[in-house]
Amino acid sequence: MDRPPGNSSETLIASKHLRNPAYPFWPMVKADVPPTLQSRLGFSAVDVETVFGSFCAVRFTAELAEVFQGMRAYETIVETYCQGTMVLPDMASLIDQRNLTQHSLMSLPAASKCGQDFLETHRIYEACRVAALIYGVGVLFPLPASTAPLPALVRDLKAALQESNLAFH
Fold it and tell me: Would you tell me the crossing angle of helices 91-107 and 123-135 to the nearest 10 degrees?
């Protein structure tokens, strides 16, 4: 199978334009493990359940909880390296981990795409998804300030908070 055009660029374009990636994730580094958040970032379903699973009670989805866990795992990898307690990682693998995490985040559907029943039962989902997108384009997969969609994301977060009745007045 041919590789889709520019996997990193596809994640960049999706992040810049706040849309779902058009192609599946294709790692730069071929590995024996599939390109999933759990296999590439070294966590398990039990880790997701332990750390973010309780958020499902307030209407996270399992996919959102897994992306949050992936973001946490990637941040831990980077922090460990920056603290000097980890040898220099293989940069291509580190880039794959970052790109996979951002690709997974950008692949989450907006609540409005999930139907009216979802909107009524998962009010906190969209606020948390948009907050994660802000973290994604600002920290995880940082875009230059001139091209980052931060104004649109802030507007979307405010709207999501108002719709979810979570806004603090």
Answer: 150
Give me 25's structure tokens.
């994730």
Whether 56 and 69 have beta carbons less than 8 Å apart is answered as: no
The Cα-based distances of 119 to 9, 115, 124 in angstroms read 31, 6, 9
pLDDT of 2 > 60? The answer is no
Chain position carrying tokens 């209407």: 59
Q: Which amino acid is at 120?
A: E
Comparing CA positions, the residue from 70, 37, 35 lying closest to residue 51 is 70
Measured distance CA(117)–CA(97) in Å, rounded: 34
* Domain definitions of the chain by residue range: 7-14+26-125
**Helices and strands per DSSP (H, E), number in the chain:** 8, 0
pLDDT tens for residues 14-61?
Answer: 999 999 999 999 898 887 778 899 999 999 999 999 998 888 877 788
pLDDT higher than 50, residue 167: no
